[in-house]
Amino acid sequence: MSALSNIELNQLRLLQIVLETRNLTRAGERAGLTQSAVSHTLKKLRASFNDALVIRQGNKLVLTPRAEALQTPLNRWLNDFERNVLVQEEFDPATSARRFIIATSDQVEQTIAPQLIKRFSKIAPDIHLVFAKLERRAWPTQIESGEVDFAICVSTSSNPALMVTTLYKDNFVSAVRKNHPFLKTKQDLDHFCQYPHILVGTGPDARGATDTALEKLGRSRDVQFKVANFSSAPYIIESSDGILTAPRKFMNVVAGKHKITLFETPLKLQSFSMKIYWNVRNKDDQANRWLREQITQLTRGGEKKME
Hints:
- The structure is a single chain.
- By secondary structure, this protein is an alpha/beta fold.
- About 45% of the residues lie in helices and about 20% in strands.
- It has three domains: about 5-85, Arc Repressor Mutant, subunit A (Orthogonal Bundle); about 100-160 and about 280-305, D-Maltodextrin-Binding Protein, domain 2 (3-Layer(aba) Sandwich); about 170-265, Periplasmic binding protein-like II (D-Maltodextrin-Binding Protein, domain 2), CATH 3.40.190.10.
- The chain has twelve helices and twelve strands.
- It has a five-stranded mixed sheet. Strands 9-8-10-7-11 form a five-stranded mixed sheet.
- It is rod-shaped, with a radius of gyration of 32 Å.
- Residues about 300-305 have low confidence and may be disordered.
């Protein structure tokens, strides 16, 4: 009775070479095995198949009828296994129509999406990019479940299913409309707190990092306008006396498109790191890795352009 269930893949690969070369020495050289290792493996194969497989006649090895019948299907099976299982299909961005979903905030979207799409129009014209709203509490689960491919945010997560790398570091800058009276002052903290302010955020609380920093100094500001999205903030600046304090990279992108003036915030605010997260199961996926590299190159290598 044969014991085919005990056969290992490397043993079948050696058998394929032996049946092809009909020479144990050459088979060992091609497989990177010693003569004794070849003989030992062949002995196991004979026991598993309950057949001699190859017989020495003079200076030659001849195949048994069982080995002759086995040779063609063995070649086909091993070749199919190597092609379909061991070899990952090559990802070609020039021809791929892969769809990626990136969860992030609207200010990050406005900062990187135009440049990323412009790049893809040249090197990956059929790639589909979907930017989704970052759900503050749900994004780790969304990545883990495969609902989104990436999350770009400042948040941290200890979820073991996620991998992360820092894309760039950023800090804050403030902005007012052109010809705002603040621009004619010393632009110090007293005048900064004198004018109304604009805050971007969701939820009922009208406080942000600026308010926390001011509170430590025993100061406060009047948040007169609060909007849910960064996209509307430049229009509010243009049409009011409000001051907006926001991430520098975002403000540099929109400053040239609106009638606003940037100035250094007269208050020490902590800088932050923007990170990209993905599922650990996709760490070796060619397409996933390729997009991570594109975003990383854009945000790091193209950092001067973004600033």
